[in-house]
Amino acid sequence: MRFLIAFLLFITPAMAAECPVSYSEFEANIPHVDLIECPKNNPDSELGFCRLVMDGDDAYVYVFLYTDDDSCLSDIRRARKTDYLMAR
Known about the structure:
- The chain has 88 residues and is α+β, with helices and mostly antiparallel strands.
- The chain has one domain (2-79).
- It has helices at 2-8, 13-18, 23-29; strands at residues 33-34, 48-55, 58-65, 72-79.
- The longest helix is centred in the first third of the chain and has 7 residues, at 2-8.
């Protein structure tokens, strides 16, 4: 989350009204893991996609929706890290 907060400080108000964070900006600046599908398939693969970000003991699912240009961040959901780690 600290990554996104620092990144959001550099966004202009005009950009924020249109799209708070484009996927190309996110991908270039935030270490993440591509998820095959979003939790509970929300949104489904026709509307968008999700990325997982681990930040210390915390995990977050970043939800992107497809737009005419670049995909746009639409939500950040706190997640249980154990849901994404392999059990022994």
